């Protein structure tokens, strides 16, 4: 049995909370590892938290000022300096279909580390990422490790509703982030990948706290229910609108922006039902994409929605942002959308899609006049287009 098959079988047979121990036992036996530790990105994407502090570091590490953080940011293996024991730490990104989960740190004797071993450990880290995603349905072990502080109940509800924060396919790459990560209440993003299309939704529920979270949960699940029935995005909006109106009779509403990409052609259907905005970087030019504004979901009974058509070109970068981003005000009263947002989009143009939302939100935090609990959401979509022979 080769090493890949052996670790795959071991991980699939392991208890959901025992994945790190299983990997540790395998790497100690197979490669003579001195220590093995898994670090997971926290909800705010600012630190890497150790899953099992008993073996290695016990404190969170900065995502922006540590070798582990550099490996996470570049999504490439990174090697530390050898210590007095002639062993070095090696850092491997733990991902699942483009979702950046964390870093696997393996300390190996220098003589045992070779290119084939590096490839094996890269494979182990990828397997671990996929198994963590599956295990999250059965244990709180990894959810707890992602937290630097307690989530509010509203934030707990929102994070459980979300898909992955990043995803990659041949035709596109997605990254998204919410702030304040530990106290979010109304903003939400959603996406669904198919073989011929990509569906994206950004929503902003009215109100604060649990009320906003419950409203957004209703809207997102109504949209998903319609989408999974194979219904077009205009009718998805209409059905979700009716579900919210039936529940709240116009006293509460949800702003949403729906996009559906045709992967073969790059044509995009859009329904703008409220406050989220769409911005585009094409070449070195940043513009807000003007869409026909329609009624937020749930405001009136039996609202009708109309699809607008756009065209994505290979190389385009699209940003979907909530009002907590573009309406944020500086100490001098300048809204972020006036100049700051375009500057941030240009400044982050060389970053991958998964890293852009966090970078823009950090720029936003410096722009704002003070700390705020207003929700802020950024979703980035890099459009590559379908090459000949794909599909």
Could you describe the 3D structure shown?
The chain contains 11 helices and 17 strands. The protein is an alpha+beta fold and 391 residues long. A 6-stranded antiparallel beta sheet has the order 3-2-1-6-5-4. α6 (153-161) packs parallel to α7 (209-228). The longest helix has 21 residues, at 115-135. It is globular. The mean pLDDT is 94.
Strands, helices and their partners?
Blueprint: H1 3-13, H2 19-31, E1 35-41, E2 47-50, E3 61-62, H3 67-74, E4 78-79, E5 87-96, E6 99-109, H4 115-135, H5 141-145, H6 153-161, E7 166-168, E8 172-179, E9 187-193, E10 197-205, H7 209-228, H8 233-248, E11 254-262, E12 267-273, E13 277-282, E14 285-288, E15 308-311, E16 317-321, H9 323-326, H10 340-347, H11 356-367, E17 376-383
Antiparallel strand pairs: 1-2, 1-6, 2-3, 4-5, 5-6, 7-8, 8-17, 9-10, 10-11, 11-12, 12-15, 13-14, 13-16, 16-17
Helix pairs in contact: 1-2, 1-4, 2-4, 6-7, 7-8, 10-11
């Amino acid at each position: 049995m080769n090493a890949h098959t052996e670790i795959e079988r071991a991980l699939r047979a392991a208890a959901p909370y025992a994945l790190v121990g299983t990997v540790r036992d395998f790497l100690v036996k197979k490669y003579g590892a001195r220590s093995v530790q898994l670090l997971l990105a926290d909800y705010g994407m600012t630190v890497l938290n150790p899953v099992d502090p008993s073996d290695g570091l016990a404190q969170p590490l900065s995502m922006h000022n540590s070798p582990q953080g550099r490996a996470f940011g570049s999504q490439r293996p990174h090697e530390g300096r050898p210590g007095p024991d002639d062993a070095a730490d090696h850092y491997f990104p733990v991902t699942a279909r483009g979702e950046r989960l964390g870093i696997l740190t393996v300390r190996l004797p220098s003589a045992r580390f070779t290119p084939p071993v590096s490839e094996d450990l890269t494979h182990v880290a990828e397997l671990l990422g996929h198994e963590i995603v599956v295990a999250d349905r059965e244990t709180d072990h990894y959810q707890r490790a992602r937290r630097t502080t307690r989530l509010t109940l509203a934030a707990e509800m929102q994070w459980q509703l979300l898909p992955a924060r990043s995803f990659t396919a041949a035709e596109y790459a997605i990254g998204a982030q919410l702030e304040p990560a530990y106290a979010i209440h109304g903003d939400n993003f959603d996406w669904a990948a198919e073989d011929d299309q990509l569906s994206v939704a950004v929503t902003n529920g009215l109100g604060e706290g649990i009320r906003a979270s419950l409203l957004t949960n209703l809207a997102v699940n109504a949209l998903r229910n319609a989408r999974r029935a194979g219904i077009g995005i205009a009718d998805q909006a209409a059905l979700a609108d009716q579900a919210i109106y039936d529940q709240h009779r116009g006293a509460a509403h949800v702003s949403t922006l729906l996009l559906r990409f045709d992967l073969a052609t790059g044509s995009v259907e859009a329904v703008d039902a409220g406050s989220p905005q769409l911005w585009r970087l094409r070449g070195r030019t940043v513009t807000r994409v003007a869409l026909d504004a329609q009624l937020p979901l749930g405001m009136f009974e039996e609202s009708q929605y109309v699809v607008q058509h756009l065209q994505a070109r290979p190389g385009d970068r699209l940003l979907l942002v909530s009002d907590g981003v573009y309406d944020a005000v500086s100490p001098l009263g300048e809204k972020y959308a006036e100049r700051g947002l375009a500057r941030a989009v240009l400044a982050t143009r060389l970053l991958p899609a998964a890293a852009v939302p966090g970078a823009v939100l950090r720029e936003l935090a410096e722009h704002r006049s003070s700390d705020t609990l207003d929700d802020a959401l950024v979703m980035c979509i890099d459009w590559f287009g379908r090459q000949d022979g794909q599909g």
